[in-house]
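Let us work through a complete example step by step.
Step 1: write down the sequence.
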Amino acid sequence: MEIVESILTNNPCFKAGKKIKVKGLMLHSVGCPQPSAEVFIRQWNSPNAARACVHAFIDGNTGKVYQTLPWEHRAWHGGGSSNDTHIGVEMCEPSCMKYTGGATFVCSDRDAAMAVVKRTYDAAVELFAFLCKQFGLNPLADGVIVSHKEGHDRGIATGHGDPDHLWNGLQSGYTMDGFRKDVNAAMGRTVSAQTAPEASVHVQKAPDTPAAPGGEMFISDKGVDLIAGYEGCRLEAYKCPAGVWTIGYGHTAGVNAGDKLASEAAAKALLKEDLKKYGGYVNNCVKKGLITFPMNQNRFDALTSFCYNCGNGNLQKLVTGRDADTVAEKILQYNKGGGKVLAGLTRRREEERALFLS
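Step 2: predict the structure and record it as tokens.
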């Protein structure tokens, strides 16, 4: 199983910053013919998103798990008291379905639909086994693993029929009782016929690791920490000298008066999102041939920090036509403000240089 961290930092639910003590897990399906998790992430990662937010989506095309909230964050997924106790996970649904009213649908290609359903089911089993282990939950205990429909029947969720309606409508043979047994089996607790033994879990933080060979790179936690160490953090929205509402480590997108962040960790999550733009400038320098020396994670992190502080124009001036050793020396020259050498910038450039060379 692969977990891709895609936290919805612009969603009002994330910004609310409330926590829960995890007592259970609730399984949903999205209720529309959309197999791509990234579509929902783009739509929901907005301050204008509707009052809905879950902890994860399972992609119907790949089976990847996209984590969209920290696991112990209070989500808006089930309605009722389930929001205070349960992690909510949405399985994406096949594109060959068409809803005709409520939970009723028709399907133009059952084989294709079943391939998506099996993919999301198998990934959900692995994810729920992983979460049960992490939070010390017994998957067979009453009320620990429930569907949205079961949550409604228990009086802890709103009146939805997912994902039972999907499995039943396709005559898939999947049931919540079978699902709980399969999660139990995936934890190595019993033997089950519906799913394979537990697979290894690979957690991939999307902003923190390079993409596939030939693809783009993303800043690591080490790089984020370096930048955060030189940027002031404020957990309540304020107006910067330019009159722009700002929060955290200089985040401005979608910030309004009165906005608050729950913690520095939430501020760092916003910073990671903002740094995608500046990491993109470094990637562009590679694509355009301005950077000709080999790139590794430490060099990428150092240049992203430099770009965040000095801008894309200075980044291009720094790297164009230069080898790595020259860049490492020239970076020290960008330590002035108003024509004067500043001690803070000198320390930052020295730390970026050390990281670049390590």
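Step 3: interpret the result. The longest strand covers residues 24-29.
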